[in-house]
């Protein structure tokens, strides 16, 4: 049984699967962008996070600058003012909630710096002991904060790298799965397409065989009808050709020779009609020839040419009662190509063929149809 052609909804299904694969890939890319990009932005942003320039580092630098100024000229008013400004900056950068909450050395250090600022604002002398008590302890605290923040930064960096790798692995795995699914969908579609193509080819081959005579390879009666339908409305000529005394030929030489004669006559008829007509085998020794024909004169000329070509070929017929070679009886008619016209034309050609046989065979006759019959 021939498999039916793929319905349209199967093609829609393949399109739907392809679109779903594409949407899934887009969702994965959106997921990667939605979750990884903000982390990248937060990591490399220069404000409000661990990776910006560290406040503790800047505070320690300002405190170091103030200390250097005081060690240079501790009693000079201008130097003391500059040192006061640097230390005040260090204090403001040091005095933040994060440091107060997480580092126990922050409040004592801020108190020590505040005491040093009060001395600098007044006329009190600033000795090395005061500097050691007011500056070195805060600098150690700031250094501790810097190191701890550096460790946290390293941990955040490592976590970010791991998270990025995880996201990349998910995208890679998802893309691989989608690729495999797409490949599978394509393979299924290709196999289905090939099955459908093979089925269609087998169906066409079966139909072709069903419309052809297996012995001679020409069309059969069904093919004749189909070709008439395909020529709808055109003026056609129909020849019914009968091999005279073919049964006697088979009886004397055998059926294999009879089959060879049929194939040889097919070649001869096709050559005589100069490939402008189509040939059909209707039965054991009866053929039909169909071609476009506008007048009876052309139809009569075709019949004459066909009969005389067979006579010229002089194919031996040892059991022919009236001749030494194979002969034809031909009945012909013209008709308009439609169902009714074909029936009338076929019947008229058959009557003309019968008249030729009644008169002794080896000849032809063209049926006369009036204009009303030709018009259908």
From TrEMBL:
The EC number(s) attached to this protein equal 2.7.7.65
The family database entries (InterPro entries) matched by this protein are listed as:
Diguanylate_Cyclase (IPR050469), GGDEF_dom (IPR000160), Nucleotide_cyclase (IPR029787), Rev_trsase/Diguanyl_cyclase (IPR043128)
Listed under catalytic activity are:
2 GTP = 3',3'-c-di-GMP + 2 diphosphate
Transmembrane feature ranges:
12-31, 171-189
Signal peptide start and end residues:
none
Which enzyme type, at the first EC level? Answer: transferase
Per the record, the domain of life is Bacteria
Q: Coiled-coil annotation: which residues?
A: none
Q: Which Gene3D superfamilies match?
A: 3.30.70.270
Q: Could you confirm whether the keyword Ligase appears in this record?
A: no
UniProt KW keywords: Membrane, Transmembrane, Transmembrane helix
Q: Where is the GGDEF domain?
A: 234-369
Keyword Ion transport set for record: no
Spell out the NCBIfam families in the cross-references.
Answer: GGDEF (TIGR00254)
Stated name of the protein? diguanylate cyclase
Upper lineage: Bacteria, Pseudomonadati, Pseudomonadota, Gammaproteobacteria, Oceanospirillales
